[in-house]
Amino acid sequence: MKVVAGIDGSPAAEAAITWAAAEAASLGAELDLVHASPPPPDPSAQHIVSTAIALARQLQPGITVDGWSETGSPSTALVKASGDARVVVIGSRGLGLMLGALIGSTGLDLAANAWCPVAVVRPDLNQAGRRVVIGYDGSPASDTALDFGLDYARRHDHAVRVVAAQPPGTELHRITETELQDAVRQRGGHDAELIQITGHPAEHLLRLAADASLIVLGARGRGGFAGMLLGSVSQTVLHHADCPMVIIPTATTTGG
Ligand SMILES: Nc1ncnc2c1ncn2[C@@H]1O[C@H](COP(=O)(O)OP(=O)(O)OP(=O)(O)O)[C@@H](O)[C@H]1O
Ligand SMILES: [Mg+2]
Fold first, then answer.
1. What is the pTM of this model?
2. Which has the higher per-residue pLDDT, 11 or 82?
3. What range does the domain containing 198 cover?
C-alpha cells in the first residue's frame, strides 16, 4: 500500500508532502513523490524530487520514501501512480491550478480518473480542526466517502460529522433518517454526529465544516449528467473550503 503525492517545488506541494507524509506514517504505507512536467524535460526535476524526499524524511523519519520525475502531464502521471495507492495527494496552487480555487485542471482530471481517493491540500488551509465532515447523499461515491472519512477519523482520533442535506422544493433522492443511520452504523461509525437538514447541500456542508480538519465528498452524487467530472456540490465545496478535502473519484466506486 502506498500514499502518492504530486510535487512541483511549490509551497502548495510542500503542504501536500506534509499531509501525505503524515498519512503514510499513520497507515504504515510507503510514500511516493511524483513529479511530472510537460516536455521538454525540466532541468530542475531532479532537484525538486530530492528536496521533496528530504522534506518528507525529515517530517516523518519512520516512513519509506521514494520519488521520481516524469516528462508528461501531471494528471496522467498521478492517475497512473494512483493504481496501487491508498490516496493521492495534490497541493492546489502548484501544478498550474487556478488561483483562489481549491482545484483546477489537474485536480479535476484526477477526480475524474484516479483509481483511489484524491486529497487536495493548500498551504493556507486551516489544518487545526479535529473533525471530519462527510457529505452523504446515498450515492456509491458517498458510501466510499463514508468509508474513507470514518477510517481517517479513527486513525487520527478526530470526531465525525455526517451531513445529508435535502435541497428545498424537491423530494428527489431524500435520505431517510434510518438510511443515514444504517449507512454510518454499518461502517462502525457509532459515535458519528448525524445531521439531516433541509437546504442547499454545499452551503450547509461549508457552514458545518467551518472547524473541520477534512471534508470528504464523492466526485459525483446521485444526480446530474453522466459527462460531468464533478457534481455541483463537490465543485462548490472545493472552491470555498478552507480545510483539506478528499474527493472520491467515480472510478473508485465503479471499478472504472
Ligand atoms: N444533498 C447532499 N447532502 C450531503 N452531501 C451531498 C449532497 N449531495 C451531494 N453531496 C456530496 O457531494 C458529492 C457530489 O455530489 P454532487 O451533488 O456534487 O454530484 P451530482 O449529484 O452527480 O451532480 P448534481 O447534483 O450537480 O446534479 C456526493 O458524493 C456527496 O458526497
Ligand atoms: Mg447531487
1. 0.94
2. 82
3. 131-254
